[in-house]
Amino acid sequence: MDRRIYLSMSGAKATMQRQDVLAHNLANVSTNGFREELQSFRAVPVRGDGASTRAFALETTTGYNPEPGNVIATGRSLDVAVKGNGWLAVQGLDGTEAYTRAGALDVNAEGTLVTRSGLTVLGGGGPISIPPNAEVSIAGDGTVSARVPGGVPAPVGRLKLVTAEAPLKRGEDGLFRGPAGELDADPAAQVQDSALESSNVSAVSTMVAMIAAARQFEAQMKSMQTAEKDEQQAQQLLSLN
């Protein structure tokens, strides 16, 4: 009897973990450049004395969906959508180089090019500085130009764009990093100016998956309750005998 309860319990726990991943994806359906987190089940044998007769079901993250989201024109000169499998290099809060597809950029009070969330955007030689009161434009190859009032556009830096040959690793801060550290800039990487890439999460399919997971959780809980009742009835029969 304990085998049935154990299997139902481990399945219910894995389904709850799956719901967490789906809820996280759904919460970021409107986040620019967000990559859908993928998940799958795996069986982990319970080790102990004797033969392994129990397997614990776990929900494991298998990575992210690399498919690009829709590109939406914004008309804003500081917005860029990275093309293909390219990524924009930024400086994470921990000081390390990280990568993102969120291309909504701004200029902070110190004149440094940053993301909408305040992360420093990296160029080939480090942060990119913008002259005061300058009008900024970004070319398709990532070249950042600034035009001060009464002047002509002049290059002030170039976005560091990288191409991931292998899947990147998503950190707890939501940024991606190379499996072996920093990636080299890719001169062939391109961006689309005055546009942003939307999230690649499908709200409809994610909602359907959440409903299916909820029903699966209910079935597993019902199985546990049924197993408990069967055990109680078996004990009553034994006591009568």
Strand content: 25-35%
> What is the percent of helical residues?
25-40%
> What's the overall geometry?
elongated
Order of helices and strands: HEEEEEEEEEEEEEEEEEEH
**How confident overall, as mean pLDDT?**
87
Helix/strand class: alpha+beta
The helix count comes to 2
Question: What does the model show?
Answer:
Helix content is 27%, strand content 31%. The chain has helices at 2-27, 203-240, and strands at 37-45, 55-64, 71-73, 80-82, 86-91, 97-100, 105-107, 113-115, 120-123, 126-127, 135-138, 143-147, 154-158, 161-163, 169-170, 176-177, 191-193, 195-197. The strands form seven sheets. Strands 5, 6, 9, 10 and 14 form a five-stranded antiparallel beta sheet that branches. Strand 9 (120-123) and strand 10 form a beta hairpin. Helix 1 (2-27) packs antiparallel against helix 2 (203-240). The radius of gyration is 25 Å and the shape is elongated. 24% of the residues are buried.
Could you write a compact summary of the structure shown?
With 241 residues, the chain is of the alpha+beta class. The chain is 27% helix and 31% strand.
